[in-house]
Design a protein that fits this description.
This protein starts with 10 loop residues before the first helix and ends in a 6-residue tail after the last strand. It has one domain. The protein is globular. Strand 1 and strand 2 form a beta hairpin. With about 110 residues, the chain is an alpha+beta fold.
């Protein structure tokens, strides 16, 4: 399954969470390695949408809110560097809408 191009990605999730330094669970330093910065949030938004369009989503789990999906792959940064990431999406039971939840670095699996 592919994440729909009209899936909701709140700009605030990008500008007030992913690209902002946080004491705990900071993602801004990781994203900055590829050139994703607070002054270019639209580039991260575009890269997330491209990843979701290019890679199949895999059902991860479900709870009372809905069904969670994972999309794993590369985000191509504006500086030419790519980052291995996992994006999480939620299809809400209430309205069937798919919304972006978060992004995190993809960790290598140990053999």
């Amino acid at each position: 399954m592919k994440i729909s191009p009209d899936a909701q990605i709140p700009l605030e999730k990008i500008t007030k969470y992913l690209l902002v330094h946080r004491e705990w669970d900071d993602k801004s330093k990781f994203l900055a390695q590829a050139g994703f910065l607070r002054d270019n949030p639209e580039l991260l938004l575009r890269a997330i949408r491209k990843l979701a369009a290019d890679v199949d989503a895999v059902e991860d789990r479900a709870n009372e809110y809905g069904v969670f999906f994972r999309v794993e792959g590369e985000l191509q940064g504006p500086n030419g560097r790519s980052l291995q990431v996992v994006t999480i999406w939620l299809r809400w039971h209430v309205d069937g809408q798919v919304r972006f939840v978060t992004l995190k670095p993809r960790k290598e699996k140990k053999s």
